[in-house]
Amino acid sequence: MSASDRVQALRAAIERHNIEYYARDAPLIGDAEYDHLFAELQALEAEHPELLSVDSPTQRVGAAPLPEFAALAHATPMLSLNNAFAEDEVAAFDRRVRDGLAVGSAAEVGVEVNYSAEPKFDGLAVSLSYQDGHLLRGATRGDGSSGEDVSANLRTLRSIPLRLQGSDWPAVLEVRGEVLMLRSDFAQMNERQRDKGEKEFVNPRNAAAGSLRQLDPRITATRPLRFFAYGVGIAEGAALPATHSELLDRLAAWGFPVARERRRVAGLAGLLAYYAEIGRQRSALPYDIDGVVYKVDELAAQARLGFVSRAPRFALAHKFAAEEAVTELLDITIQVGRTGALTPVARLKPVFVGGVTVINATLHNEDEIRRKDVHIGDTVVVRRAGDVIPEVVRVLPEKRPVDARRFAMPKNCPVCGSIVVRSEDDKGEKGEKGDKGVAAAVARCSGGLYCPAQRKQALLHFASRRAMDIEGLGDKLVEQLVDNAIVRTPADLYQLGVVALAGLERLAEKSAGNLLAAIEKSKQTTLARFIYALGMRNVGEATARELARHFGSLQRLLTADDAQLQEVADVGPTVAQCVRQFCSEPHNRMVIEQLRAAGVSWSESEGAMPSAGAVAGKVFVLTGTLPSLSRDAAGELIMAAGGKVTASVSKKTHFVVAGAEAGSKLEKAQQLGVSVIDEGELLALLQASPLAVPEST
Fold first, then answer.
1. Which of 41, 155, 308, 382 is the most exposed place for a label (fewest CB within 10 A)?
2. Would you tell me how many other CB atoms lie within 10 Å of the CB of residue 405?
3. Is 120 an annotated catalytic residue?
4. Where are the domains of the chain?
């Protein structure tokens, strides 16, 4: 046998063994024999370098580091799925499917839609492109339209076939699936990290995402990543099966791992039974999942149902409820917020819940602690869902120790010692409301900017992305600026120089220069952003925009009385009082004057909004990730054309602009019959609308 023939035979054998091991969990040979084949192939390729090719299994060790990831457009968009959390939402999905397929009347006599159901992997979505059976390239999902070209990294995954098995595959094929880590592999990797004295990874999902996006593919090659296929993007040159279930079987035959727990079920009862079954198996599965996915099984029916906005009508993600865990409440400490609000925080015995190790959880306010009867030393139930801040859900009173202590809100601020006042009619800030959303009394430090905690939070708020957007001004730097008495008010930021910053810890000359450039750039802003950045109590982004829209100039706002303020949409007596008190405070007026003198400015004015056009007077809600616009940018365009952007969907909403991974807002819009549009349709509306005409203050 020639060297070329032997190389080809070895590659085919090694790929077959990879597929049997990773995709089918049925190894045909032991590790030693596999290693012998691999070593023989390496030796032959070293002896005959002209035979080396990129699809050789030996190339899975990874290539040289990349300078950066290139963008790679998907042949067809990688759409997100609508989510459901309750059975009635699944029932509504099944009803919409039957209505869309015109089988609703037949369903009354027992005709049901067949679905393909499978676990919802908690990993990183990718697409793999094959040409004539060979892996060509691969990319992350990105924004759905394009992702990052991680081809070199994906080639290191032995669960991804470099060559497809069989001969009935399409000449052009795009396979979609998830990159993840098995729980056992994750545990072993963290054990190795501990042995080396290096930092452990938080959870399998984050570890998988970080490993796949390494600029050095050789690092990716050392990480135990797995790939599971769940669908096909495009297929040219061969006919696909008639159903999604058969398509998954075909993917498995071509060498791709697919979920063993997949099922073909009938109707709503089948969907809910599958959800319950997987829920029972969840803890025993080899990988993390956060729900299940339902897809209409017949591919022709999928095509008939089509898509709404950027999500398919034929599929649904049924998510699991928030995860809970039991742990011990070690102590309750106090955080002082931007407006002086004192928030109690539970310090917990570390517990793994919702994919992360939790050591802190919010207790909202003193009233909430009393309502839940929380004592220091209690055994408590902690809940976390996604990126939501962990919270203490309830106490297990039967496990309360005899030395458990009741919590009492301090009478003096723990940071500055100022008297703490309790406002019974306070609307509260984000994070200060109880479970039922009822406004609660809030304890506040009366120290104002005398209190370093409030000063720090005020500066962080002022510099935040949605306010003045000063990149690089983070927690640690603000802490140093305040603790060293370099900055007392936001206006002091605009007086900083390299000399003042040079002595600060971990701030090199280049970093100092970048920060000063960001501060200089922030001088050009908008009136709405400036109002929001000032940090008035009870004035969020939406209220700041309405104030800017109504008054049109800062001077008119500063001199407005309560009656004039209450002419503004969504401004009631409490908000009006907060705004007036802030604007009439001499110290605040002085800081505003200093900011203006430092060069902070905006286009005068934002008050003249168009009264005609396709957008003027319309209420919009933005949800999901848009292909090219950030939600902030889209919102500003809408408001410039005279529209209004709100956070929640109601009957008063005219349009919901939905992007990738649109969730409950999209579902509610569909239930209420609100028009759902995508970014392209929004831009068309904006093009038909006149722009705001500036005027002087």
1. 308
2. 12
3. yes
4. 3-61, 114-319, 323-445, 448-522, 527-602, 619-687
